[in-house]
């Protein structure tokens, strides 16, 4: 038992390290960077198989993992069928790109499998959540630092910086999406630290509570949230900012009615994030520029809207089986009726791009899988008594709502670092719902909750 616990710690340590490392080399959105990540994940898979063989353990330990993994397995099999083309109608117009998508999907499958297998208790889940927040804080600090220095090119990879913060990413909207996902998890953890019991007001007790807060996780998490919101604002991403604050409000309102004992300071916390962070901190770091970008947005000036409109005939012609994973930029030029101001290798709408490349049926399956993760998060907030699990579920629900909004105008799931983080958060929905509570803290209870 001690050996199993030690092995689990090693695996979780390496998986958390990958979460932090993945966005560092340009969001892993280059072949060389993604290949390093693939090699690391495949190596962990080999260790997992060797450990299972040596100790005669099953590859999957829990029944709920099948619900989590089956949609990814179906996606993997479908991509394989597109590559080999043995079934009439299921093929690809770009075998090279579809093969890349196949390898990426296999990597995602292994990562989710290992995370769900070795994250076995609340302490390990805290490590995963901490690694997400740490990664978000680093990205926010680095992106804000480079932006405020007004550098023309990034210090490491010498990419043009422009007038928007982009962290270690190539595209500022991927940076904004990554920060929003990390922010959601940080907000969830902070909510789990709030008290749920009402107490009569006493000045002495209030003073002691305020003093203890200054040296507690709550203050550190609050500062982390402020730092990441600064980075999010400096990205100048319209939907990145709008999606985050919309998700915060929607999930917070739901939690007020869903929690059996909602935290006393939940509403003041949400209001403080909106007023303190968005209005006061945002005014210092230029939230009015984001507001101006939103006001200046029009269908006449946004060629990405034309891309969505001109992509619809591709779906009509290939709605059932798709054109092949990763084949949008190969297929779209033949349907493009007019020249644009730039070259579009993605649809700037994940719903459109997935429907084009994989067909409507596979895309709908993946959408339902994500919505089921949201359902589990909401169910955890309502039914479980463990405050940390409820907080993780809150943050995961926020992240899913944000991603659903942001993906209407961008291609965040085409960035490996963003996809890896989003799949990690989806896995948290299953973990927070299924992991046992810490029985050592509740010796009188016989059930997980």
UniProtKB/TrEMBL annotation:
Q: Which domain of life is it from?
A: Bacteria
Q: Which InterPro entries match?
A: O-antigen_ligase-rel_domated (IPR007016), WaaL-like (IPR051533)
Topological type in the membrane: Multi-pass membrane protein
Q: Which residues form the signal peptide?
A: none
Q: Where do the O-antigen ligase-related domain residues begin and end? A: 223-361
The record's subcellular locations are:
Membrane
Gene Ontology MF terms: ligase activity
Descriptive protein name: O-antigen ligase family protein
Species in which this protein is naturally found: Shewanella electrodiphila
């Amino acid at each position: 038992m001690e050996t199993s616990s030690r092995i689990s710690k090693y695996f979780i340590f390496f998986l958390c390290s990958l979460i932090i490392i993945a966005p560092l080399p340009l969001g892993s959105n280059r072949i060389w960077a993604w290949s390093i990540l693939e090699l690391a994940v495949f190596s962990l898979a080999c260790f997992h198989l060797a450990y299972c063989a040596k100790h005669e353990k099953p590859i999957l330990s829990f029944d709920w993992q099948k619900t989590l993994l089956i949609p990814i397995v179906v996606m993997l099999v479908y991509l394989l069928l597109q590559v080999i083309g043995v079934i009439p109608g299921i093929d690809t117009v770009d075998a090279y790109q579809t093969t890349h998508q196949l390898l990426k999907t296999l990597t995602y499958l292994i990562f989710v499998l290992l995370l769900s297998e070795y994250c076995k208790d609340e302490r390990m889940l805290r490590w995963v959540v901490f690694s997400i927040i740490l990664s978000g804080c680093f990205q926010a600090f680095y992106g804000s630092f480079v932006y405020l220095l007004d550098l023309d090119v990034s210090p490491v990879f010498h990419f043009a910086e422009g007038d928007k913060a982009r962290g270690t990413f190539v595209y500022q909207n991927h940076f904004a999406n990554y920060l929003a996902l990390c922010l959601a998890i940080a907000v969830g953890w902070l909510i789990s630290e709030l008290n749920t019991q009402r107490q009569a007001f006493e000045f002495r007790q209030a003073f002691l509570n305020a003093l203890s807060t200054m040296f507690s996780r709550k203050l550190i998490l609050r500062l982390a949230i402020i730092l990441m919101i600064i980075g999010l604002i400096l990205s100048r991403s319209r939907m990145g900012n709008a999606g985050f604050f919309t998700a915060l409000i929607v999930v917070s309102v739901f939690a007020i009615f869903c929690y059996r004992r909602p935290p006393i300071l939940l509403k003041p916390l949400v209001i403080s994030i909106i007023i303190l962070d968005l209005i006061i901190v945002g005014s210092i770091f230029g939230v009015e520029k984001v507001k101006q970008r939103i006001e200046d947005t029009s269908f006449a000036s946004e060629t990405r809207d034309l891309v969505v409109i001109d992509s619809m005939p591709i779906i009509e012609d290939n709605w059932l089986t798709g054109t092949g994973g990763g084949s949008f930029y190969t297929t779209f030029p033949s349907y493009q009726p007019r020249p644009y101001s730039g070259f579009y290798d993605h649809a700037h709408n994940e719903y459109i791009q997935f429907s084009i490349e994989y067909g409507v049926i596979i895309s709908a399956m993946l959408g339902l899988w994500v919505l089921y993760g949201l359902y589990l998060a909401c169910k955890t907030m309502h039914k479980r008594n463990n405050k940390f699990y409820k907080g993780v579920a809150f943050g995961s629900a926020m992240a899913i709502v944000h991603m659903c909004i942001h993906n209407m105008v961008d291609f965040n799931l085409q960035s490996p670092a963003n996809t890896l983080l989003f799949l990690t958060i989806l896995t948290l929905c299953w973990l927070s719902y299924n992991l046992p509570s810490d029985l050592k803290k509740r010796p009188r209870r016989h059930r997980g909750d």
